[in-house]
Amino acid sequence: MKNRHKVLIIDDEPHIRRLILAALTRADYATVEAANAREAMDRLRVERPDLVLLDLGLPDRDGLELVPLIKQQAETVLIVVSARDATDEKVAALDLGADDYLTKPFDTDELLARLRVALRNRMTRGGGAPVLVLGDVTVDLMARIVTRAGEEVHLAPKEYAVLAQLAAAPGRVITHQQIMNHVWAYENERHVEYLRVLVRTLRQKLEADPQRPQIITNELGIGYRLRVPGDSHATPEG
Amino acid sequence: MTDDRPSPEAFLRQAAREGRGRLKIFLGAAPGVGKTWEMLSQGARRRDSGTDVVVGVVETHGRRDTEAMVHGAELIARREVDHRGHSLGEMDIDAILERHPALVLVDELAHTNAPGSRHPKRYQDVEELLDAGIDVYSTLNIQHVESLNDVVASFTRVRVRETVPDSILEQAEIEVVDIPPDELIERLRDGKVYIPQEATRALSHFFSKSNLTALREMALRRAAQAVDAQMLEHLRANALAGSFAAGERILVAISEHPHAAGLVRAGKRMADALRAPWTVVHIETQRDQYFTESSRSQLAETLALASRLGATTASIPAVNVVEGLNSFVRDARATQIVIGKSPRSWWFEIRHGSVVDALVRVIGDVAVHVLPSGEAAPTATARPRLHRRNLWGRPVDYLWSSGAVALMTALCLMLSQAITLGNIALLYLVPVMFAAATFGLRAGLFAGLTSSLAYNFFFLPPTGTLTVSNPENVVSIFVLLGVAIVTSQFAARVRVQADLAASSARQNAALASFSRQLTASATKEELMQAICADIARLLEVRTALLLPGASGPDLRAAFPPEDRLGQIELAAAAWAIDNDQPAGRGSATLTASDWLFHPLRTSRGVLGVLGLAREDAGEPVRSDQLPLLMSLLDQAAIAFDRMTLEEENMKAQAVGERDRLRSALLSSVSHDLRTPLTTIVTAAQEMKHHPRPELAETIETEAQRLNRFVANLLDMARVEAGALPLKMEATDLFDAVASAVHDTRTALQGHAVEVDIVPDIPLVRLDPVLLHHCLINLLDNAGRYGDPGTPIIIRCQRRHDALLLSIVDQGPGIAPGQEKRVFETFTRLEGSDRVRHGTGLGLAIVKGFAEAMGLTVEASNNDAPLGACFTIRIPQARIIAPLSPRDLA
Fold it and tell me: Inter-chain contact A193–B757, Cβ cutoff 8 Å?
């Protein structure tokens, strides 16, 4: 990479900051640190980072409130970090515009994989090649054609709508709510069920082994993610 | 019944008295002996010696020396009560309770309060003061003592209405204020004795020397008796059994006649003299059904008087008085019976025989005291006409009887060619039997009479007249009549017995079903509702149950359901709870309330009160229902107590279980936290000197282990807290299994994972996060105990009423008999020495989470290949019906 990406690390724990900093430096990222929300907003304005790593548990402000503020401030990729079991918090952050999430404790390889996916997504957004290759499956978002091993796969309209939305941001978690808002125009409490069934038929049509899905992976209690080959760590987790 | 042995009640009474105020009564033989003066002067002495003394109420009657005594004392102002335009000053009990002195002086204990006061009688006010821990000095004349009331009236010819129960005297210290009769008569002549205007004439006889001497003797004797009673109480409480009369038991039989009160008082005197327990009994016969309302209330009053005087009371159903009394005497092992000589006419006695004679004949070695009925009380002849008619039955009964006779006549007329005259006479016995068995003796006799007339008129020649030509036929008429009479008697008697049996069976059944209902209740709320509903049904009243709450009594259950009670009802309920006595309508306290409240008491005090009311705002409980109500209340209180004890027991067990868990947790935590921490610290220190990749790896795996352990601890804390917030949503088991397999990939290294799920498995409604934790713990467990290199199988099967999700390993399996225990917290620590990593929390979490979601989980062993199998059972209710394709379009 000719131009090093700049990452803003927002966390109140100095030890965690130091460890993340070490990992990122090793992977050739430039880094900026902030210990609280006020400092974070300052750094954001001054440094204009490409990517923000936000811990939701900050001393001076609820991390969730920062999510929309950061997205407004700068055209940046935002990954939130939160504790295990805080499913609601993660969903809320994603719905507010966060690009991805990480669960504490995480390992650094996973952190780096997530950063790579998020940054590539940002680059392909708006003008990137609209044809996605997922192993032997290709998704042509312009022609609205899906093929598997060269053969066209016939998808029902709603099935295609779900797949297209996941394919628009490969590697990124899309919450159930986001998918449902997009696919169904009206509110219905049974939509999660419809969604589960749609995903199951999609998997049967696209996956080599539908019992061990490799393309559409489930994010427990949060949503789905389209897995891009090569991102071995961008996988489901608890 | 009280026994003649040292009784537990004596201890209880003594215990109840502690913390209670003491009562001292200045007892005088007659007005004017100087009771008030003596009370005031003793009060003044106590005040001078530093006691906090106030005057509650004193009647000085304008006597100057008495008024002088009041001066300097603190007086509680009287409460003005408006009664029919007159303003009456009554003792202000609330002001005294508020002021709470150490000692209060209350004149004229027998005084009757103005209507609308809290208690009808002043002695009840005094009781409340004593209950509040205030000492009371009071004054009383001997003729106001309840049990002596009759005796005094008999020789002074002055009957006072205001009486004080003997039980009050029994708990008091008594000081007789005594002056010689001559001196008293002198004081009377000097105008020093206050006599109410209207009583002047009657009292002139009262103050004769002989009367005064008799009264004086009675006062002195009563005081001596009180000392005796207190001594007795002391002896009983201290188990000094030897010194009191043994074996005597007195039974007083009463009827609804007003003179029965005299019998009760006589019984009391006898019981006191013999120091014997005594019982007042009323034998309920069929006659009771025809009682008028005033007879009923007279009976209730007499029974209430008896219990006020300290008797045990009972109401026993029986065929007739003699039989009932005889069997009760045997049951109660009575040695003396007191009965009244009934004021019946000689004609009545010839027909029915005297109860007294019959009793003396059957009763054997029991002394029978027959007392005259005393002063001219209204007798049977003065009873209202209604009563008579009731005894004779309803007119419609006679109509039916006549109908039966007419029917038989018609039948016999049709058959008159076929049957002989003698057989017709026999056939006429049928309507007689019918009438006697159905409507009672008198209707039977009536049917007998009409039958013989009809027989004579229609069948005996010459037919169509009441004359009889053949003298032989006269015999057959009389035989018919005689047989009819005897038959009626028997049939009616059978009916009475059947009725009695039915009524006593009803009552027994009621009690049995009541106690069954109460046992069946699982919660206190259910129990309270059952108590209310059953008592309402049995007594045909409205019921309400109130428990003491933070701000007064709390309405907890009612039948029919009731939201609220009036202010006055709540006040009565509160009073009943505080004083452990009935209050409200039909009791002695707060009678303005429409409801009557009875305390529910157990050995541990008053639990609450049961309120009773009648739709028509009548007396809530009839006197004949009182014994039943008391047994019901006792049973209810016992059931209530039992439930409270059970709850406390369970709480204690839960606390014990928690303690056990806590100590197990502590030992586990110290072991499971320290082991990886020690490794990490050592490895990190080592790395400072020799940075080596294996050390970093050790640190990583140990840290992972710590992480899992902490996560499990947190999960377990959530399970133990009992309130898992559930987020149920449609979940695909494929996703759930895939996520769990992915997350346990490091723990399952060396095992192949085989997923065997039918493709069209339905969606389930579960909390996906909790399910995930269940699965990773089960997989973790399988990875830990499965032999290395063997596969782990995840299988999901459809059953007709459930989905079974199983995780199967191949290894040593579960020790036989331990299939249930493996889910208990820290099982691994307690049983085996197998040293494998893990905390023993995992399976407990699986069980806790699964049950929180409404699933069950069980462990079993597989035979071939050997291994453990854990199965989560997802019931039908959690399975989502498949969606139709149209829904997805």
Answer: no
Q: Report how far apart, in Å, the C-alpha atoms of B163 and of each of A13, A136, B20 are.
A: 87, 109, 23
B-chain CB neighbours of A158 within 8 Å are: 888-889
Instruction: Tally A–B CB contacts below 8 A.
Output: 80
Last residue of a domain, one of B212, B241, B270: B241
B320: three-class secondary structure by DSSP: coil
Task: Determine the 3-state secondary structure of B26 from DSSP.
Answer: strand
Summarised one tens digit per residue, pLDDT across range A203-233 is 989 988 887 888 898 888 888 988 877 654 4
Q: DSSP code of B22?
A: P
For residue B749, the Cα-to-chain-centroid distance in whole angstroms is 68
Sequential DSSP letters for A146-163: EEETTEEPP--HHHHHHH
Closest chain A C-alpha to B761 CA, distance in angstroms: 11
Inter-chain touch A238–B739, beta carbons under 8 Å: yes
Q: Choose among A156, A193, A236: nearest Cβ to B738.
A: A236
- All residues of chain A having their beta carbon less than 8 Å from the beta carbon of residue B731 are 196
What number is the average pLDDT over the span B18-26? 85
Distance between B790 CA and the closest CA of chain A, angstroms: 20
- Partner residue opposite A156 with nearest CB, options B742, B759, B889: B889
| Spatial contact of B106 and B91, defined as CB atoms under 8 Å apart | yes
pLDDT at site B146 = 84
Tokens representing B428 are 């006429």
Same domain for B451 and B364: no
Partners of B446 in the beta sheet?
none
- Asked if residue B591 belongs to a domain, the reply is no
Domain covering A131-226 assigned CATH 1.10.10.10 in the classification? yes
Residue B522 belongs to some domain of the structure:
no
What are the DSSP calls for B391-455, one per residue?
A: HH--HHHHHHHHHHHHHHHHHHHHHTTTS-HHHHHHHTHHHHHHHHHHH-HHHHHHHHHHHHHHH
Among the ranges given (A227-236, B248-257, B492-501, B588-597), the one the predictor scored with the smallest mean pLDDT: A227-236
Could you give phi then psi for residue B65, rounded to 5 degrees?
Answer: -65, -35
CA nearest A233 in B: which residue? B742
Residue B788 belongs to domain spanning: 724-885
Parse chain A into domains and list their residue ranges: 6-124, 131-226
Among the three residues B198, B222, B241, which one is the final residue of a domain in this structure?
A: B241
Q: Partners of B612 in the beta sheet?
A: B543, B596
| pTM metric for this prediction | 0.44
A6-124: CATH superfamily: Response regulator (3.40.50.2300)
Which of A110, A218, A232 is best to mutate for the B interface (most B CBs within 10 A)? Answer: A218
Together in a domain, B328 and B406: no
